[in-house]
Amino acid sequence: MGFVYGLAAMGLTLIWGVMEVINLAHGPVIALGMFGTYLLFTHLGLNPYAALIPVAGMGLILGLIIYVIAVHRVINAPPLSSLLSTFAVNMIIIGVCTAIFSTSPQNINYSLGSLGVAFLTINYSRLIGAAGAVLVTAGLYLFLYVTRPGKAIRAVSNNRDAAELMGIPSAKMLALSFGLGTMLAAVAGGLISTFFPFTILSGSPYELKSFVICVLGGLGNPLGALLGGLILGLLEGFIPVFMPVSWVPVFEFGLFVLVLLVRPTGLMGAD
Amino acid sequence: MDFWKRPGFWFPLLIVLVWGAVVLVVHQALMRETAFILLMAVALASSLNILLGYTGYVSFGHIVFFGLGGYMGFYLLSVQGWSLIPAAICGGLLSAVVAGLVGSAVLRLRGAYFALATIGINEAARAFVSNFGPFGGPIGLSINFSAYQRYGGAGEALWMTFILLWILTMIILVVSYLVKNSRFGLGLLAIREDEDAAMVMGVKAPRAKNITFMISAFFPGVIGTLYFFKNGNLEPGDAFQLTMSIEMLVMVMLGGMGTILGPMVGAVGYQWLRGYLLTTPVFKDLHVAVAGVILLLIILFVPAGFIGWVRDNFRRFKMVLE
Question: Does the complex come out with an ipTM higher than 0.85?
Answer without folding.
Answer: no
